[in-house]
Amino acid sequence: MKKITIVGAGRVGESTAQSLAIAEYSHEVVLMDVREDAAKGVALDIQESAILFGFDTKVYGDQDSKVMTGSDMVVITAGLPRKPGMSRSDVLEANLEVIRGVARDVMRYAPDAIVILVTNPVDIMTYAFRKITGWPRNRVFGLSGVLDAARMASFIAMESGFSIKDISPMVLGGHGDSMVPMTRFTTISGIPVENFLDQATINRIVDRTRNGGAEILALKKTSSANDSPAAAVASMIDAVCNNRKRVMPCVAVLEGEYGYSDLAIGVPVVLGAGGMERVIELKLNEGEARMFKESAEQVQKDIRLIK
Questions:
Q1: Which of 148, 183, 233, 263 has the maximum number of C-beta atoms within 10 A of its C-beta?
Q2: Could you give the C-alpha distances from 6 to 63, 96, 185, 286, in angstroms and in order?
Q3: Residue 81's pLDDT is what?
Q4: So what's the pLDDT on residue 25?
Q5: Confidence band (pLDDT; 50, 70, 90) for 178?
Q6: Largest CA distance in the chain
Q7: Three-state helix/strand/coil letters over the chain
Q8: CA end-to-end span of the chain
Q9: What integer pLDDT is reported at residue 80 of this predicted model?
Q10: CA–CA gap between residue 172 and residue 267 (Å, rounded)
Q11: pLDDT in tens, 238-270
């Protein structure tokens, strides 16, 4: 790609820009932030690390939305961050206003871009951005499952002692307390995780995965997670830039899959040069279907607040 723009030069935006610059996924990585000179400062800091990390990516920033002109991809991290004790839904109203403004700018300056939503609550923001723009769903999708699955894999590695490289996790549903960690589809070197861990341990991992972001927020106190979300975004961009056709859990707008339409929620998809190229439908058992339904209903409840 020639140009990737990150809207929001906060901690997640900064970490994402650093990851993308080092990986050289595009010729230019641009940061845009409404705070005066904030994006310029973050970009300059990253650019000055180029010789040390060995990248030729040009990194720059600006306050003016015009800076995103001609972007092949736009990553939206801007918004009000959570504070300890807040849920993702608690920042819905404030961040919806942010997304409305960003959507107008993207439509004007980067009308052909693929867009990845990171702003919370990401299921709702993905739905809202797609609704505002009217763009096809393959070009608008969100981060959730990649990050949640990474957290789940980390906890499995901690509990099992096995290499995280051999762990293949799967997570469905909304990005929050109602997410559905899919232990039946989670394996260690292709072997179901139930062969290595007892049910009590698996239940503990599931609960910790659902509260992974809140756990980090409670520990850090002054900020939420930034390195792991940035790494998750970078892995999604890698799949698109290099047309890898990777199967990854992301927030996608459903069009009949899993029995739902007009809903954005975490499901496994194929990421490639066309963006979110296909939703993969898993055959859920009764318990999994019930949990997915409960998660979908929670997301639908929040969607009704913005209609």
A1: 148
A2: 12, 17, 33, 40
A3: 72
A4: 97
A5: confident
A6: 54
A7: CCEEEEECCCHHHHHHHHHHHHHCCCCEEEEECCCCCHHHHHHHHHHCCHHHHCCCCEEEEECCHHHHCCCCEEEECCCCCCCCCCCHHHHHHHHHHHHHHHHHHHHHHCCCCEEEECCCCHHHHHHHHHHHHCCCHHHEEECCHHHHHHHHHHHHHHHHCCCHHHEECCEEECCCCCCEECHHHCEECCEEHHHCCCHHHHHHHHHHHHCHHHHHHHHHCCCCCCHHHHHHHHHHHHHHHCCCCEEEEEEEEEECHHHCEEEEEEEEEEEECCEEEEECCCCCCHHHHHHHHHHHHHHHHHHHHHC
A8: 35
A9: 78
A10: 5
A11: 999 999 999 999 999 999 999 999 999 999 999
Query: Which domain, by its residues, includes 81?
Result: 3-142
Check: CB of residue 263 under 8 Å from CB of residue 303: yes
Pair 163, 296 in one domain: yes
Domain boundary among 142, 158, 191: 142
126 vs 75: CA distance, rounded Å: 11
Q: Please check the confidence at residue 307 and state whether its pLDDT lies above 80.
A: no
Label residue 176 by pLDDT band (50, 70, 90): confident
Q: Which residues are catalytic?
A: 175
Sign of CA dihedral 115, 116, 120, 123: positive
pLDDT tens for 128-153 read 999 999 999 999 999 989 999 999 99
Q: Which of 142, 171, 191 is the last residue of a domain?
A: 142
Are 95 and 273 a contacting pair, CB within 8 Å? no
Shared-domain flag, residues 165 and 112 = no
CATH number at residue 14: 3.40.50.720
Partners of 254 in beta bridges: 263
Token pair 């990248």: residue = 55
